[in-house]
Design brief:
Oligomer: single chain
Number of helices: 19
Structural class: alpha/beta
Largest sheet: 11 strands, mixed
Shape: globular
Length: about 500
């Protein structure tokens, strides 16, 4: 085995390693200046320090991580691994199947479920030399925007434990923001990567629908679900996306176009002159009372200084985005969750009365195994799909969805990117959204469009509020042009660093 070089010149303490980006860490590991096990030491030291208060993880695989680190190090030292994320410790949302490691979806229904196979993205992370730390906490079956509906308890905001970290991928976002992971995967059905990334001050990307295989992702709404990366900065997000994207024959919605347009690392981040950006701001400044109005204005000015043209624009159907999304998403969710019946796998009632009658057993298993938010969405989905209401709700929502897609396609012929907010309201306090589910639903107002249309979108920290909490914005782009999204955010990051 080749010995690592120049180790005396590298600061190996936990704080020094945790301050590095994922790609910088990997370059040091592949350059044999830092050992993969040292990076794990730093992460587990941070987990030991903060996990009890934050609760980012449902399952931590410390033994498996060190075993994997040993194999990765051997492959690096022998020259077999040279990728941009080789040796990097990563976290994965707990609705992504991991062979031999339980996948709970944050639910009592799957508390003891251990998959017999890896999701497609897990295969790709393994091939890239990434090291899995564990499975992150999430809203139950991804039904929520605060990571409070998890059967295993909530995740807390890494900067203020009285606040939620966003959801449903709140565990992944909080893990990256707190140093409990260098990067993470989440899933985004209506904003569940971008919204927690915004709350926690990290970068999160919802890729083009079909660009990342959903094989092994436990489904919420199959026509909208998309696995996406969360990371400290756009470059790390780009690197993680480059690892997980690509066509997969096991996912019928996976498309070859991501290979044909695999240009996400060819854009020049230093020169965005001539870029046409449409600035979206639904509502009034008073209605966007968390500082997003000011954040959009300041970010637009930064783009103008880089030579981009920015002008205000608006979309049609703004008032219909949430109704259409929730009709369709809950209809699909009710169908997808039919499989959890207490028969094949998952939770089964312990009540002997239920065991003797099949229908009673299924009813009690689902009633006991699902939380209140899951039951609410299943019932709503069944209602809009039922006879007499299908045409009035579901079919009509499908027609409007197509109109929304056409409207965004038209906008994205006029503009290269759309700039807008992620959240309308300030970050909620723990417990607030559980008391008022409609407030939680309305928090998805600015994010659901990208899921309804399939366009890629990326959220990034733009400014900080008076309390020092991050305010994030998002950019939406054309299909399979994630590269432009990453480049634009990297340019903003460089602009912010230069101004400091």
């Amino acid at each position: 085995m080749t010995e690592r070089t120049d180790q005396k010149n590298i600061d190996h303490d936990s704080a020094g390693l945790l301050s590095l980006s994922a790609t910088t860490l990997s370059s040091l590991i592949t350059g044999r200046q830092v050992a993969a096990a040292e990076a794990l030491d730093a992460v587990f030291s941070k987990i030991e320090e903060r996990e009890e208060k934050l609760h980012c993880y449902i399952t931590i695989d410390k033994e498996g991580a060190y075993r994997r680190a040993k194999q990765v190090q051997e492959d690096i030292d022998s020259g077999l691994l040279k990728g941009p994320l080789a040796g990097v410790p990563v976290a994965v949302k707990d609705n992504i199947c991991t062979k031999g490691l339980r996948t709970t979806c944050g639910s009592k229904m799957l508390e003891h479920f251990v998959p017999t196979y890896d999701a497609a993205v897990m295969e790709k992370l393994g091939a890239a030399g990434c090291i899995l730390i564990g499975k992150t906490n999430m809203d139950e079956f991804a039904f929520g925007s605060t990571t409070e509906t998890s059967a295993f308890g909530p995740t807390y905001h890494p900067l203020d434990p009285t606040l939620v970290p966003g959801g449903s991928s709140g565990g992944s976002a909080a893990a990256v923001a707190s140093g409990e992971a260098f990067a993470a995967l989440g899933s985004d059905t209506g904003g569940s990567v971008r919204q927690p990334a915004t709350c926690c001050g990290v970068v999160g990307c919802k890729p083009t629908y079909g660009s990342v295989s959903r094989y092994g992702l436990v489904a919420y709404a199959s026509s909208m679900d998309q696995i996406g990366p969360l990371a400290k900065n756009a470059a790390d997000c780009r690197a993680l996306f480059s690892v997980i994207c690509g066509q997969d024959h096991r996912d019928a919605t996976s498309v070859a176009a991501v290979e044909e347009k695999r240009n996400f690392d060819t854009f020049d981040t230093a020169d965005l002159k001539g870029l046409r950006i449409g600035a979206l701001m639904p509502g009034t400044e008073e209605e966007n009372g968390n500082g997003t109005w000011k954040a959009v204005s300041e970010t637009a000015d930064r783009f103008r200084k880089m030579g981009a043209g920015v002008s205000a624009c608006k979309t049609e159907f703004d008032d219909l985005l949430l109704p259409v999304y929730y009709v369709l998403a809950q209809a699909e969710a009710s169908s997808n969750l039919e499989r959890f019946d207490g028969v094949k796998y998952g939770y089964r009632t312990k009540d002997p009365m239920g065991e003797r009658d099949y229908h009673e057993m299924v009813k009690r298993s689902r009633s006991e195994g699902f939380g209140s938010e899951v039951r609410r969405r299943i019932l709503t989905g069944c209602y809009v799909l039922s006879e007499g209401y299908y045409d009035a709700y579901y079919a009509k929502a499908m027609k409007i969805r197509e109109k929304i897609r056409e409207a965004y396609d038209r906008l994205l012929t006029e503009y290269d990117l759309l700039l807008g907010p992620v959240m309308k309201d300030p970050i909620p306090k723990i417990g607030e959204s559980l008391k008022d589910p409609f407030r939680m639903y309305s928090g998805d107002l600015y994010t659901v469009a990208a899921n309804l249309t399939g366009h890629p979108a990326i959220s990034f920290p733009a400014v900080k509020d008076a309390e020092g909490l991050p305010i994030g914005l998002q950019l939406t782009g054309r299909y399979f042009e994630e590269g432009l999204l990453f480049a634009a955010v990297e340019a903003l990051e460089g602009c912010r660093e230069n101004s400091n």
